[in-house]
Amino acid sequence: MSNTLIIYSTVDGQTKAICEQIKKINQEQNATVTMASVDEADKLGLAQFDKILVAASIRYGKHRPELYQFINRHHAVLNAKQNAFFTVNVVARKPEKNTPETNPYMKKFLELSLWQPQQLAVFAGKIDYPKYRLFDKVMIRFIMWMTKGPTDTSGTFEFTDWNKVDEFGRAFAER
């Protein structure tokens, strides 16, 4: 039985929802799982955990600065544990950009990060126009128009492949 920590950095909640699913899968494999935001994780004492998963979303082409600050502070502990990382972004809705090797945000993360995770994944995110403030709604709609994505601001569009999430969760649980 492993003691697992899942750390998430999310803007709109889809990354947290994916982490909840992975938490459930790991608990089914008899792991004790703690889940915390990147802001809360500093208080937990990472050394007590056997396995650590970090998950982060993209907004306007970047991971949040707090993600890199956390990794810079804790990369030695992360490297000493069984570990994994996944990123969530809408670019991953395109088949040619939905793997760690082909996703531009994963590639950028690996270039900038002091930590090189053992297990990687990329998941497509969700666009929830009704939930966004006006500025975000306009900006995201413009980005979607440029990239041939959905532009109907009355709609919610989920691109997450939950089967792929389940596969990743099982693989992480078995590590």
Structure description:
- By secondary structure, the protein is an alpha/beta fold.
- Helices cover 40% and strands 23% of the residues.
- It has a 5-stranded parallel β-sheet with strand order 2-1-3-4-5, sandwiched between helices.
- The longest helix has 16 residues.
- The chain starts with a strand and ends with a helix.
- The mean pLDDT is 94.
Task: Describe how the helices and strands are arranged.
Layout: E1 3-9, H1 14-28, E2 32-37, H2 38-41, E3 51-57, H3 65-80, E4 82-89, H4 104-112, E5 119-124, E6 126-128, H5 134-146, E7 156-158, H6 162-174
Parallel strand pairs: 1-2, 1-3, 3-4, 4-5
Antiparallel strand pairs: 6-7
Domain Flavodoxin: 5-154
Catalytic activity: protoporphyrinogen IX + 3 a menaquinone = protoporphyrin IX + 3 a menaquinol; protoporphyrinogen IX + 3 a ubiquinone = protoporphyrin IX + 3 a ubiquinol; protoporphyrinogen IX + 3 a quinone = protoporphyrin IX + 3 a quinol
GO molecular function: FMN binding; menaquinone-dependent protoporphyrinogen oxidase activity; oxygen-dependent protoporphyrinogen oxidase activity
